[in-house]
Amino acid sequence: MLTRDDRTLPNAASVCADLGDLGLQHVGFKDVGLTQEALPDLVRAIHDLGAEAAIELVGLEPAGEARWARRASDAGVDRVLGGAHAEVVSHALADTPVRYFPFAGEVQGHPTRLRGSMEDVVDGARRLAELGVEGIDLLAYRFDGDAPMLAAAVAGVTGLPVVAAGGICSDEQIYALTRAGVWGFTMGTAVFDGAYRPEARSVRERVALALESAQQARTHASTRERGGGYLA
Prior knowledge:
The chain has one domain (3-221): Aldolase class I (TIM Barrel), CATH 3.20.20. It has nine helices and twelve strands. It has helices at 12-18, 39-48, 62-75, 86-92, 118-131, 147-158, 171-180, 189-193, 203-220, and strands at 3-4, 7-8, 26-30, 52-57, 79-82, 99-101, 106-108, 113-115, 136-138, 162-164, 184-185, 230-231. Helix 3 packs parallel to helix 4 (86-92), helix 5 (118-131) packs parallel to helix 6 (147-158) and helix 6 packs parallel to helix 7. It is globular.
């Protein structure tokens, strides 16, 4: 994610360009911290990398989620993640090619946190699957519980691709999530603030190391869903 603390970086498009030839397949950003005017240029910069563009809705207000979903679709975004009002966003994206991965469970605050018990989150994910969404956005490491166990449970009960988002800052977490069967994961703050691989000399180097770790995890773990090692 081109984000820090759940906000899109003010220089997101130029940062994106610096990641040039790393082979990123997916790059994302948030609705918070982004202007409507900057959205098309940022999507274009991501597509110029040969990557899919994703927006994660963290404003958590129904009308705002619907508004940003429509803007994202108009700008050519490929995937909408997050949002706490799945029916509202699904309606806004109806008859568009945009794939929608809403947050599972009760999500609060900014930066977002996942509340409730594991049973509550899994039940919420099940209801989202019944709604007909294409995947699940799971704040696995912003949950007060066992993140890999939660991810495995959500993936198992829904049969949908799961993107683990928020709080991922180590190779150990990447490996654990891969073993749990997630389709992919996102990293933002940890890459830009240096919590992930602090020995690395640049953001570009940390992104390259994360991609390498994700590839190694996919190679060595037998996962239920090998969707593409989503790293945004």
